[in-house]
Design a protein that fits this description.
alpha/beta, single chain, ten-stranded mixed beta sheet, Rossmann fold, 27% helix, globular
């Protein structure tokens, strides 16, 4: 592989293929790039950041949450881009405009927030992609999702996603799937597993982090176990007497005890 090149190792998979291939030599701001080693993504959860500094580049996080919990809000809080970062959200439940509004209310800069919308195009088939908003026909279109994801990643790497590019290379990208539960309603587990296998591997290659939301009460243990195999760590949520608790599994040195929390304006707040 050529010096500085970031490439994808092809997986033995006949389904959706991620086609982006980024070469550092093609990056338009290469003379301004700040090379970074072992970038760490702040989680906003003190129990993680104080022990490890945050999530290592290439981390994939599964959030297992019951209905009517703060699972969605936690997923978005972990995906909210900090200064110099980007966020991409695959939305199977909300329209792009609603996702952008949610991140804006959380204090995110919309110039660095992209959405792959799997909802809107079914009712507005003529809607047109932009660098930061891309659309697929439905959550069943895994091939289309893969292509849009690769296109958006490539746009970020080439410096065409937004003005005010930070110059970090590889650009730090947070990616969120909201949600795996919806995708499982439309595609067989085996197909979705292969899709997520390629996706999680891609996030590792580009040194991003992935956040994946899954309903903990709608699927059997086989399904949960199979999805967990693709993840670096798991954050479980439970609700007792209208209070949300989380526990963290898979991060060295971080306690697995249940802790109370809430999410306020995109920030995770740990409660006594």
């Amino acid at each position: 592989m050529a010096d500085g090149e970031i490439s994808r190792t092809r997986q033995p998979y006949s389904g959706p293929v991620f086609t982006a291939r980024i070469d550092r030599r093609d990056y338009k701001y290469r003379d301004e790039m700040i090379n970074r080693l072992m970038y760490t993504y702040k989680s906003g959860i003190a129990q993680i950041d104080q022990i490890s500094g945050g999530f290592d580049a290439g981390t994939n996080i599964l959030i297992l949450a019951p209905p009517m919990s703060l699972g969605d809000q936690l997923a978005y809080a972990l995906t909210r881009p900090l200064t110099g970062e980007y966020a991409i959200i695959l939305s199977t439940n909300e329209r792009a405009a609603e996702v952008v509004d949610a991140f804006k209310l959380a204090g995110a800069d919309k110039r660095f927030t992209g959405v792959i919308d799997a909802i809107t195009k079914s009712s507005t088939p003529t809607i047109v992609d932009t660098p930061r908003l891309m659309f697929v026909s439905s959550p069943t279109d895994l091939t289309g999702i893969g292509i849009k994801f690769s296109n958006m990643i490539e746009t970020i790497f080439e410096g065409d996603f937004s003005d005010g590019e930070a110059g970090l290379f590889p650009p730090p990208i947070r990616f969120c799937v909201n949600s795996i539960s919806t995708l499982l309603m439309y595609r067989r587990l085996e197909v979705l597993y292969q899709f997520l296998h390629v996706l999680t591997a891609k996030l590792k290659k580009i040194e991003g982090v992935g956040v994946y939301l899954l309903n903990s009460e709608s699927f059997d243990e086989k399904t949960l176990s199979l999805i967990k195999q693709l993840m670096t760590c798991v954050i479980e949520i439970k609700v007792e007497q209208n209070v949300n608790f989380l526990r963290i599994r898979g991060i060295t040195g971080v306690s697995g005890d249940w802790i109370k929390f809430q999410v306020t304006k995109g920030q995770v707040v740990i409660l006594p």
